[in-house]
Every structure is written in structure tokens, then in C-alpha cells.
Design a protein that fits this description.
The strands form two sheets. Strands 4-5-6-7-11-12-10-9 form an eight-stranded mixed beta barrel. The protein has a four-stranded antiparallel sheet with strand order 3-1-2-8, with no helix packed on it. The protein contains one helix and twelve strands, in the order ββββββββαββββ. It is globular. Helix content is 4%, strand content 36%.
């Protein structure tokens, strides 16, 4: 195996699953081996956990460590799905019952414990899919295709990516997915699958677009 080849990396706590807000506009949250998370005071009704029975990650797995080098993403542009928005940092809670619960907005969130553009680790960006409300993350389920191009803007400049795969994953088995492999210059977008908000995630895997040689 070469130094740049992906290796197995299964996080102990950050295993995406789902929960739902029971409102006229149903918002999907991300949770990891956890019950429902509570919204900030005054931010809306309480979410209700989707039914699932996740198992603990292997005891030999190690939690993600901050990647070396790289620059945090500040903005994402994905013309194919109508995504053109800022990226905000999100640091999930640590622990065996930790949760990833982005704020109840249409924003994009970068998972800070993992990679960033230009680093030696995979970069992860997550966001809500909605029922009864439009969001660019909803469009990942319907119009994202391999070969699409997207751009992350950082303080160091822009990084261009090409979509390699568009796939779905049951939320109960996402913890064992190869999306957690550590791959330099890889970007993974995750949201809930619009056709099955409770049980399935949509996953977009993109690799950095090579710079043309002259």
C-alpha cells in the first residue's frame, strides 16, 4: 500500500444516522449512535429520533484526529445542484453517544475533526435535507451525477473537485462505509436521501480535479 492509498478508518463516535423534526417542514438531522438532540432554546420544536439500532464501533477503531496541513473550507459552489453557499465549521461532541446535529438551517457544515482541502485526510461537508422546503442539499438526491464539478473556496484559494460516485447508504450501516477511509484530496458530501429521509443517506464522493499540465 502506498503512502497516499486510503486505509480503513472507522470512527468510534461519528457514525452518521438520522433523526427527524416533526413539523410542517420536516428537517432531517444527523445523529451518531444517539437519541434525539435538543434544538437551541427558541429555535423550534423538539426533534424525534428515527428508528434505528446501531451497534458500537469496533474497540480497535480510533477517533478521528485533526488532519495535517490543509485550509478550512469557507464556501462551496456546486452548479449542478444549485449549491452556492458559505461553509460553517462544526465540531461534533466526543463520546460513545455523541451526535452530529447541525443547526436547523440550510447551511453547509464542515466536520472539523477530519480533513480540509489540501490536507492528508478526507474532507466532509454535511447539511440538512428538507420536506416542504427547498435546499441545495435536497438536490443531491435528484440531480447530482458522476462527472459533476464543484469548488471549495478556502483562505488559501480554490480547490476544484470532480464527482466520482453518487450513492445511498442505510443509516444503520453508514458506520461501516468506505466513506470513512482516509484519502488525501477527497471530498464527501452527506445528507439524508430525499426519497427516504428517515432511513437512508445520500453520499457524494468527489476527488480533487488534476491541474492540466502544459
Amino acid at each position: 500500500m502506498t503512502e497516499t492509498a486510503p486505509g480503513p478508518r472507522r470512527p468510534n463516535t461519528k457514525l452518521l444516522s438520522g433523526a427527524a423534526l416533526v413539523t410542517a417542514g420536516l428537517a432531517i438531522l444527523f445523529s451518531l449512535l444517539a437519541g434525539p438532540a435538543s434544538p437551541q432554546s427558541g429555535s423550534g420544536p423538539s426533534p424525534v429520533a428515527a428508528p434505528f439500532s446501531p451497534t458500537d464501533a469496533p474497540t480497535t477503531a480510533k477517533p478521528a484526529a485533526p488532519a495535517q496541513q490543509g485550509s478550512p473550507p469557507l464556501h462551496i459552489t456546486y452548479p449542478g445542484v444549485g449549491m452556492d453557499q458559505d461553509v460553517l465549521p462544526l465540531t461534533p461532541a466526543q463520546g460513545t453517544q455523541a451526535s452530529i446535529v447541525p443547526p436547523m438551517t440550510v447551511d453547509a457544515y464542515w466536520l472539523t475533526p477530519y480533513g480540509s482541502p489540501g490536507s492528508t485526510d478526507t474532507t466532509y461537508i454535511v447539511g440538512h435535507s428538507w420536506e416542504g422546503r427547498d435546499s441545495a442539499f435536497n438536490h443531491l438526491s435528484t440531480v447530482a451525477h458522476p462527472g459533476d464539478h464543484l469548488t471549495l473556496t478556502t483562505a488559501a484559494g480554490q480547490e476544484n473537485y470532480t464527482v466520482k460516485t453518487v450513492s445511498t447508504e442505510n443509516k444503520n450501516t453508514l458506520k461501516d462505509s468506505p466513506i470513512w477511509d482516509k484519502v488525501p484530496n477527497r471530498l464527501v458530501l452527506v445528507s439524508c436521501y430525499a426519497a427516504d429521509l428517515w432511513g437512508t443517506n445520500i453520499i457524494i464522493t468527489a476527488d480533487q480535479t488534476p491541474t492540466p499540465t502544459r
